[in-house]
Design goal:
Length: 86
């Protein structure tokens, strides 16, 4: 089993050099680009060993990044929202 841990793209508070913690700060345009680039890389890396499951926190920045990965990998990977990783 392989476990990939991926951080979300840049959010608004990151851009302001503020610590977000569990505040729901959305992705910036740069963060959306980073999420898309990461998603493409993950899709390429996992061609031989597909991802079975994506787990994301309910924060919009993490969920949006997870959904980008899900879409890049064909859209059929289950995505679970788990508040414990918030």
């Amino acid at each position: 089993m392989k476990l990939y841990i991926i951080r979300h793209g840049q959010c608004e508070w990151n851009a302001l050099h503020k610590v977000c913690g569990s505040t729901d700060s959305p992705l910036t345009e740069k963060g959306r680009t980073q999420a898309a680039e990461t998603a493409a890389l993950v899709a390429h890396m996992t061609c031989d060993e597909p991802i079975d499951l994506i787990i994301a926190s309910p924060l919009s920045r993490a969920l949006e990044t997870g959904k980008a990965i899900q879409a890049a990998c064909g859209g059929n990977i289950p995505l679970i929202i788990d508040d414990r990783i918030r």
